[in-house]
Amino acid sequence: MSQKIKVGILGATGMVGQRFVTLLENHPWFELVTLAASAHSAGKTYEEAVGGRWKMETPMPQFVKSMVVKDVADVEGVSADVDFLFSAVNMPKDEIRAIEEQYAKTETPVVSNNSAHRWTPDVPMVVPEINPQHFDVIKYQRKRLGTTRGFIAVKPNCSIQAYTPALAAWKEFEPHEVIVSTYQAISGAGKTFKDWPEMVGNIIPYIAGEEAKSEKEPLKVFGHVDDATGQIVPFEGPLRITSQCIRVPVLNGHTSTVFINFGKDPSKEELVDRLVNYTSEAAKLGLPHAPKQFIQYLTDDDRPQVKLDVDYEGGMGISIGRLRPDSIFDWKFVGLAHNTLRGAAGGALECAEMLHALGYIEAK
Question: What are the residue boundaries of the Semialdehyde dehydrogenase NAD-binding domain, all occurrences included (predicted)?
């Protein structure tokens, strides 16, 4: 690529914004040129604005330290010098919906990590390996917004990443009843153990809003674009999911335990085969952050483990293990995904890479 696509980050000082910064350092397609945050941070250098709140395990990249942070409310000023934006702002949902649409109406595509627009019917909510065809709805969204170039796309919640890929791989076997418990890392709340010492040796059996997301978002991912209405219609088949979401003392990595019934009667060999041989358009397009093998199956009884497996495929792959028959349901298994890479900034970055590869994001 002779000329890199210029990108900015809305909400650059928060934990997900910081992850975007690290992922965009030396990116082969994208060049980070603009950082935006609240009025409190605006006018400061990025290093000053973040202060002692840098939460990544690697040092702050040198190239961003002296960048002057812009006010995220200055929509025209922030969008002026970028080809598209990542959104990781921390605001009430109605304010996020409004400001992301304002940016899109400046003809600047917005790829959002936030949940605010996940249920806007003409906003695609995409896992690139599963439902990239949902980007087709963008043409209808642009018509609603009155734009020719601007739009909003989002990625799903981090809590669904450890089991929804398995459901996608097993679609032919008609999964229809799923019980899932997610054991979610503290970085999903934007925290480290330094910020949240009371989580050491602790479990909290409640995460606000997570269970509804875990149960409903896979249905939108498995839905289809309805050309008659210009909207995404959630999956209308027999699939039903019920969940419990628990915060556990782990820094990175969401683990899920899953019980599942199928409409058909697959063998274990067939189930494992569909996992390890799952292919996707994302891998075929050679996206920089698309894992070469999306799903790995681990045969050891004590895998997947966070310490051993969370960074599989650079944190962008899914690890599945302990697949075995159940005494009440057909099968059960354990899944693991990196929540701030695959589940957050990395997933949004891969969405942007696919949007660029498909021609939705180009230089202004």
Answer: 6-138
